[in-house]
Amino acid sequence: MGSGLIKIKRRIASIDSTRKITNAMELVSTVKLQRKKKDLQKTVDYTAMLSEIILSCLKDMDEDQEDVCSLIGKSSCKPARKNNLYVVITSSLGLCGGYNLNIMKYLNESLTEDDGVMMIGTKGLSKYDKKDIPLDDSNISFLDAFSFGNVKKLRGQIQELFEKKEYNAVYLVYTHFKNALTFIPDKLQLLPLSHLQAGKEDKGYPPIFYPNRKEVFSLLIPKYLDSILYEKITESMVCEQGSRRNAMENATDNADDLHDRLNLEYNKARQTEITSQITEIVSGRLEDR
Question: 150 φ, ψ to 5°?
Fold first, then answer.
């Protein structure tokens, strides 16, 4: 066998080995994707329920009280500072296509020199190039031990920064799951909860709040922030697994195409070598005559 054939055969073996890895990663990502999607749906339902209860609390409640109006973002108690904090959800693992690159591009469009960034995920940290904007990297390994308990700690840290009036607003930059092929970078204003000022109508019989609306509201706000953080981080993880599954599926398809092309090239080269050998044998016999 000629050196050219040996080289092609080695390339085919290498591609087959890589294909086994990408196919296995595709299967693993598919299982993780389905599991995370189920978790996300449960969290979405819970957050929607909390949102309805909080809206009911706000109805007929004095929103001008300092601790209430600062949380819901009324203009009468907005802090003088105009800078924002962006909590960015990226991944801690690679091989997920353009997932991290897209979210970082989206972040760069919103940042100003007065803002701050809190990074979650090591891959986002490696792509962060805004040296003039403060970066909090204390939570980059957050996804390695993702749990509701750790989400509560993260929320407490974020809420403390907001209540100290270090930032005018806190935004969560995450990836929105549209379908299995489309993942869209997006942001949600965590604090103040200005989006909760609309639609305060009670449907049916209004709930009874004990001891009063304000205390129930104060109790539910941390739970709501915990649930919305957990929901959006889970949604980002769904997008990460979906992006990784698509990337591995494309890699497997490319490996199949390359294997077919190399196999055809190998067969052609093998046929050429056999033809050459036959020609040499025939020529040798003719010379003997």
Answer: -70, -30
| Superfamily of chain region 20-248 | ATP synthase, F1 complex, gamma subunit (3.40.1380.10)
Q: What Å distances lie between residue 173 and 105, 124, 229, CA to CA?
A: 11, 12, 11
Between 93 and 213, residue with greater pLDDT: 93
Residue boundaries of the structural domains of the chain: 20-248
Amino acid residing at 286: L
Per the CB < 8 A criterion, the answer to whether 223 and 54 are in contact is no
DSSP state of 144: G
Phi, psi of 91 (to 5 degrees): -110, 165
- Inter-residue contact 202 to 56 (CB < 8 Å): yes
The full DSSP string for 116-140 is EEEEESHHHHHH---TTS-EE-TTT
Contact 230, 43 (CB under 8 A): yes
Backbone angles phi, psi at 96, to 5 degrees: -125, 35
Instruction: Please say if the pLDDT value at position 132 is more than 80.
Output: yes
Rg (CA), the chain: 29
